Amino acid sequence: MSKFKWVIWGSLFSLVLFFSIYFLIHVKVVNSVGPVVLMLGKMDVSKLGIFFSDIKNVIITSLIVGFLLGLLTGTKSKN
Prior knowledge:
The chain is mostly helical. The protein has one domain (3-76). 68% of the residues lie in helices and 0% in strands. The chain has three helices and no strands. It has helices at 3-26, 35-42, 55-76. α1 (3-26) packs across α2 (35-42) and α1 (3-26) packs antiparallel against α3. It is elongated and about 35 Å long. The model has no long low-confidence stretch (mean pLDDT 67).
């Protein structure tokens, strides 16, 4: 795959991951999921800094992380 495809896939993966964490923290639908997720749900938002305090910050942070992840993966892969 080209670097561009890796960046797109990295960004999509990162968006899904960060949105999952955001909704686990804010919606708190974590009663029957498991101990790790339950611990995430009980975490104070202020401990995670500004990244998960606002939906806009979640999108910006996840796109930056996904871009870097895709770029790194695309650089290391031979395809």
